[in-house]
Predict the structure.
Amino acid sequence: MRIALATGAELAVHLYGDGDGDGEPVLLLHAWGETHRVFDRLVPLLPRSLRLVVPDQRGTGDSTKPAGGYALADAAADVVALLDALELDACWLAGTSSGGYVAQEVAAGHPGRVRGLALIGAPSDLRRPLPAALAGLLASMHDPVTRADVEVLTGALPLHVPVPAGFLDDQLAAAQTIPRRVWRAVAEGLVSAVPPIRRGPITVPTLILWGAEEDVLPAGQGRELAAAIEGSRLVTYEGTGHLVLWERPERVAADLAAFVTGVRR
């Protein structure tokens, strides 16, 4: 379905699990350069008792692609507006990579709307100029974006665990739905934002899932998140790189389900 938000965006939203609305609501947030399709292997592994909300964020997939509104604060505002549109007072937020940065922003600014956070390979601080190599890749992208463009960007992220070829093909196709200007705008919005953990305390229950072979973010950022979020739990996956969700969907599903169930109890 497509849902018009008070922020002006219209998001494509996919709902799974508890159809009567009594299940625990869990909103899944994809990363920069991804769409809701990144959760294709996770969703079937989660309990049907959960009420899963899986949107394409602004500018991606089947959601609208406005000229602006790609700052971190805009992404967080879309999440809150989506909760309003779904008449959800609060939900669990699970974000992968920069989707976890968006989740932190929501929890920092709207703690009453968040029951708990699951941060999957998420950064603690992205403040830095775009690396020259990445800026060069973004500048060289075609308009519209081609499969070859996406293959180059994806190829810069090493995989430590084999991933099904069909899943990779789906991610490449999904990434081509993102206009070149949105790739750049979201990246600039992320690196220019004040890190959520620097804005104020995050006080909701938090699970941090981290790859021991993290090769994109500074290795200490998982520990930094754990130190900044009082009472959080850091779980490290051995033999896993930055793409925690891609590489370990079974473990992520088990840890996420146990986290939600355990906190509710």
Remarks:
- The domain at 2-264 is CATH 3.40.50.1820 (Rossmann fold).
- The radius of gyration is 17 Å.
- DSSP finds ten helices and eight strands in the chain.
